[in-house]
Amino acid sequence: MSIVISPARPFARIPGRVRRWGTAAILSVFIAASASTAAHAQQAQLPAAAASDPILRALQAELTRSKAQLKMENVDAPFYIEYRVFDVEQFDANAAFGSLRSQNRSRLRLIRAVVRLGDYKIDSFFNAGQGISDILPLDNDEPAIRHQVWLASDQAYKRASEAFSNKKAMLKQLNVDQPVDDFA
After folding, report:
1. Which helix (H) or strand (E) holds 36?
2. Average pLDDT over the chain, rounded to whole?
C-alpha cells in the first residue's frame, strides 16, 4: 500500500482576452493487493494518522472484502486489485481591466478501480479490462463511499473477465507467444 499526495498543480492558461487560472489539489490514494503478496498485505496496516481518515478506512475495508468475496462462477478470482482516489478542488476566476468578472469553485472526488485476472505472465489488462472510473461522494460518509467502491470493484471485475476471455481467444487465434510478461 502506498499513499501519494500530489501538491497543487496549476492548470495551463487559456489564451484569449480573459485570463483564467485554476489550481487543483489532488489526493491520490493507491492501495493494491496481489495474491502472491497476500500475507504481506494482511500484515500491512494503515498508519496511525491515516486510520482516522474515512476514505482510507473505506478503501482498506473494501480491498479486504474484494479479496475475500469478489468471485463469480466459472471466472478466476482476481490476482490484483487497485484503487486510486482523486479529490480535486478547482477555482476559476475571470478578470478584465483589474476587475473580477466571475469566479467559480468546484470540487469532485473520483475513484479509479483496476481489477486484474490471470497471472503475471498473461492478465486481463486489455481494452475494457483496464479498469473503470466513477464518482465518489464528497461527504465523508463511510458506508456511502464503501458502496461506491464495491460497485466500482464489481464493474471492473466483470469488465476484466470479459477482456481476459477476449484476450485469450485472440492469442489462440493468432498463435502468438508473448516474450514479455503482461505485468512486467
Report:
1. none
2. 76
The DSSP secondary-structure symbol of 123 reads B
1 pLDDT higher than 50: no
| Interior/surface letters 160-179, b for 16+ CB within 10 angstroms, e for the rest | bbbbbeebeeeeeeeeeeee
For 56-70, the pLDDT digits (tens) are 889 889 988 988 888
> What is residue 138's three-state secondary structure?
coil
Express each pLDDT in 85-117 by its tens digit: 888 888 888 999 889 899 999 999 999 999 989
Cell of 60: 482498506
**H helical segments located in 127-183:** 142-174
**d(C-alpha 40, C-alpha 152), whole Å:** 25
Closest alpha carbon to 136 in 118, 151, 125: 151
State how far the Cα of 85 lies from the Cα of 62, in Å rounded to an integer. Answer: 13
Q: What three-state secondary structure class fits 100?
A: strand
- Structural domain boundaries in the chain: 2-174
- SS3 letters across 106-120: EEEEEEEEEEECECC
In a 3-state reduction of DSSP, which class is residue 5?
strand
- Measured CA to CA, the distance from residue 170 to residue 15 in angstroms comes to 46
What is the pLDDT averaged over residues 27-31? 45
Distance in angstroms (rounded) separating the CA atoms of residues 59 and 29: 9
